[in-house]
Design a protein that fits this description.
Keywords: Disulfide bond, Endonuclease, Glycoprotein, Hydrolase, Metal-binding, Nuclease, Signal. By secondary structure, the protein is an all-alpha fold. It has a single domain, classed as Orthogonal Bundle (P1 Nuclease). Helix content is 55%, strand content 3%. A two-stranded parallel ribbon has the order 1-2. A two-stranded parallel ribbon has the order 3-4. It is globular. Residues 85, 122-123, 127-128, 131 line the site of one 2-acetamido-2-deoxy-beta-D-glucopyranose (NAG).
Length: 338
């Protein structure tokens, strides 16, 4: 009976709109970035934030402690205007045949991130990264610097989540409700389960969406299955992975600074392509539809994409912060040991 009621409740509670990588995804990007920064820049960040550790966040660098702040405040009156700064809506609604899931080479040429069309008045994540990088570089106001650092850390993570630069028509996968094979159709994702009481009262309980699976579930399942539930071990794995996959590193380092709109546009474009080719597309090549049940194979084959996006985000955040706070171009040998 309880289970039935819970299901019913899940069905009727309004689904919340776009989220970011979950808290864990943002912490991973921030901790990776931190590990690549020079000591001088690390010290500058600790100084700005006024702390070096936080009891509330185990295994977190100062950067990881603040990585999720932008999500926490976006529902407050003061910051609700920032909601569109977390994502890119590629206007597939303006394209007659839309942007169906398919492999990259066969996509309609209008299906790509067009800054002028898809980022009005710079109000999208590709614009907000440039904005907050510039603020961090130029402002003399302490509070403005802290705020810019918090936004920047979060948004560089967001733009690397494929479904944060994806189709308008399904709200970045937020209108596509899915479940994993073998799980209850309306299970609440891991993070929400732990907070379900609070969420119930707050009216924020939401069913699983394709968007949420890319924010949270793929990462959580990877950590639970292969890293004994330890986010820190997963981060160490990604660091080691980078050292043996230098081709990726060099590719990501080709345009790594957040002050450049050309670079942030490229990051958004990459995410959009991953969304069309890997997130929206099922293992048999078909479009994922509302109500679909996803296989374990989907999760396993998409996981490398998620890992690459987290690593790319960490790397580019490090380069951007090093440049903005220290005026130095971070070289790949500093973290590859070349
Ligand atoms: C940076 O700090 C670490 C540990 O705090 C230290 O081992 C290392 O020598 C420092 N590097 C430089 C270049 O000062
Ligand atoms: C840039 O940052 C300022 C200060 O927070 C804000 O007023 C403005 O709306 C931001 N613009 C974008 C595109 O992020
Ligand atoms: C900076 O932020 C702190 C805490 O939010 C606030 O108390 C203070 O008045 C702010 N200072 C300025 C100059 O805005």
């Amino acid at each position: 009976m309880m289970k039935f009621l819970l299901k019913l409740l899940c069905l009727i509670v309004t689904f919340t709109t776009t989220h970011a990588w979950g808290k864990e995804g943002h912490e991973i990007v921030a901790n990776l970035a931190w590990s690549f920064l020079s000591n001088a820049t690390q010290a500058k960040i600790s100084d700005l934030l006024g702390f070096t550790t936080s009891p509330a966040c185990e295994g977190c660098s100062p950067l990881a402690v603040i990585a999720d702040w932008a999500d926490a405040v976006r529902h407050t009156q003061r910051y609700q205007w920032t909601a569109p700064l977390h994502y890119i809506d590629v206007r597939d609604d303006l394209i007659p045949s839309g942007c169906p899931a398919r492999v990259k080479d066969t996509m309609d040429e209008r299906c790509h991130f067009d800054y002028v069309r898809d980022c009005p008045q710079d109000f999208c994540v590709a614009g907000s990264i440039v904005n907050y990088t510039n603020i961090l570089m130029t402002t003399a106001n302490h509070n403005a610097s802290v705020e810019a650092l918090k936004f920047l850390t979060h948004f560089v993570g967001d733009i690397h989540q494929p479904l944060h630069a994806s189709r308008t028509t399904d709200r970045g996968g937020n209108s596509i409700h899915v479940s994993f094979d073998g799980e209850d159709h309306f299970v609440i994702s891991g993070r929400d389960r732990r907070h379900s009481q609070r969420h119930l009262r707050g009216g924020h309980l939401h069913a699983k969406t394709l968007h949420g699976i890319w924010d949270d579930d793929i990462i959580e399942k990877a950590i639970d299955r292969d890293f004994q539930g330890s986010r820190v071990m997963f981060e160490e794995f990604l660091q080691a992975w980078l050292k043996t996959n230098k081709d990726y590193v060099h590719q990501w380092m080709a345009c790594p600074v957040g002050s450049s709109q050309a670079c942030t546009s490229l990051w958004g474009e990459e995410s959009f392509h991953y969304a069309i080719e890997w997130a929206y597309r099922n293992v048999d090549g078909s479009e994922i539809l509302d109500g679909d049940v996803l296989s374990d194979e989907y999760q396993q084959t998409r996981r490398p994409i998620v890992q690459q996006r987290l690593a790319a985000g960490g790397l580019r955040l490090a380069v951007t912060l090093e440049m903005a706070l220290y005026g130095k171009a971070l070289q790949s040998d500093s973290f590859l040991g070349e």
